[in-house]
Amino acid sequence: MNPVNQQSNCFRSLKIPDRFASGAALVVLSLWAFWLALPFFAFSDRSFVRINDNGDANLPMALAAQTDLGDPLIGARNATLVCGFNQTANWGWTPLDTFFAVLPGWAAYAAITFLQRLVAALGTFFLARRTLGAGALSATLAGVGYSLSCQFFLNDSWSGFTYNDSLARPAIPLVLLSLSTACRWASAAGKTGAAFALAAATGALYGICGSYLSQTFVLALTAAWVLILFPEARFRKVVPLLAVFGAAWLVVVMPFARAALMLAADSHRTDTLESLAPDTAIASAWNMLKRSYFDNWPFAIAMVAGLFVPPWRDRRMAKLVLTTAACWVLVLFSKALTIAFRDALGFLQSFQFQRFYLLLPFLYAFAGSEALARVSSWLGGLSRRWPRPLGCLAIAAVFCWAGQRSRGMHHIIMKTVIDGWCWTVFTDPDLKGLRDRTAPEARSDPFRVVTVANTGTSIWHPDMMPPYGFEAADGYVPLYAGRYHDFWARAISPHLERSEKLASYFHTWGNRAYVFGPETGWPADGAPVPAASLASLDLLSLANVRFVFSPAPLSDPGLKPVVERPPSTPPKSYRRKLGSRIETMWAGYEPRAGLWIYENRNVLPRFYFADRISVFDGDDETLQALSAWKNAGDDTRPAFLNRADLGDQPVPDPAGGTGRVEIRRLTADAIDLSVSAKDREVLVIGNSYERFWEARIDGEATAIFPANHAFQGIVVPAGDHAVELRYRGPRHPMVVTTMP
Length: 740
What we know:
Helices cover 47% and strands 13% of the residues. It is an alpha+beta fold.
């Protein structure tokens, strides 16, 4: 008898029917999933996560898309408009987004966290039962372990699945179960067609689960799982099944992936590893792997111990361990190999191949529970003097460990909630009030905002602004134009020039277009920090930045204070034990972070006719001129152009920039303007230059060229005209779009 099947004998020796045990396990796993999501239900509208530690998630977009402001720009992700990539390369609809359309934000988020953990727990349970014949107890343990998904190393402030995972990672066990079933059908007479249909349906359904980047790593696991762990299916039928599964998945995600790949070549992701060495990457990966081991050490120890438990001829335990070891090797060396071959990889050098670590929680939990079942059965059969349930004690100990880790996760969530890192940033009355006051004029005179924030140390973050209805010029964005990265480096050059560490962080890590706060922290005495020491307000003005949000006071003659709100002072008992914090909060204390809002007096409009045109030879000269430009507040509207970008197109002489621009339509990827030019002039468009934008004047196509290095420009002839701009990039079928 298979030792895993023998594990159910633990229940038989206790006179518990196996069927009843399975039913009880399903109830336990459902309650466990609810327990893991409980803080999000209990704290209701206070329960959203810290966006700066979950900044690559779609949570801000899902919230913003449900805003009642009716602003078509809000569905675009933060800096995606200014970066020119709008929704196409950054956000496709996923099934979980639907929750926000039918439930209040907090309830939707709580329901999603519960569903993710339930899918992971039940999927792992059924996978263990039906593919390995595991007993109900060890299968339950596998479900508990994977739904917990111990990865405290992610940020030391978050554990388990994130909203960005959608169902991509939680559904891994269901994908493997479905493909395993298809493989068995392929070996049975008369079921070949059904097997291929199941594989195709699994690939297509998995494709819409979101986070195709995470799914890319899962594809490697599915191949290993089917080809290595299930040799009973005929090889010649297994490979076509995997091909059908992958092809169906690719059909769904290819438009999205193609958009990202095409845009990545022009993005900030090129040449990001020049300052890194392979040995440094290996050392970093090794630390990550060590942390992943300590986060899951009971499962990891059991997994290795399972190799030394009979029967020796059953090689599935060895295959599970080897699959986990292969994942370790991929994590350990992938970044180093990427650095070594970066010249050949181009923009793919910044693809995080080391994220195979996302598979480790599943492999640890599944292989570890399989090993514990083997150990349990073996220990129970060593001697008749001891009852068979003796072997279950090891499993019970791991259950206790999982409960302890879940309490640690709850502690992190509650601390985050109670300290005001969560609901405060979505319900702040001053931010809501500012949007209410500016919303009517934003239609005819749109603007952007920036947020001064140190990632991980400041409550305010650019990604928090879209739910309030603000379009941000900064943020944590998967893809943004390399030109905008160059522009932003000049915008925050006052800070980068003083901090080698910050400069390396900005250029190497990418993804983050931030106005960083003081590296040494804000002054303890509350003294204002000169804004010019953090960023160039002149270049922020060119980026159409009208408001600056900060957690502490700033000083600059170009900034007009709008809101000056010191942080709330907590009671003395508030900073003590967690229980005291909870009691204080429920007693009525509401932590409010400090918020200073400033209006930029010299902001330039989103669309304008240039009254001062400068042409340079090369991007370096253009960027140097931008850095030296000073906005005197005299309504000067410049256009810095690169001669190579203009081609054969002659540069018009500015006619004073007195032309009129009226916005007829402004959405994420469709812009209609009515313009009146006194002469042949350059119209500067404050959206990031990107090759998939097209322009027409009175229905006739016209060239778009870079203006002010990062933005768009077109030449408009004299007279009254209708200008249309459309984003014509590759489009994902599930992308939320406002284009006709």
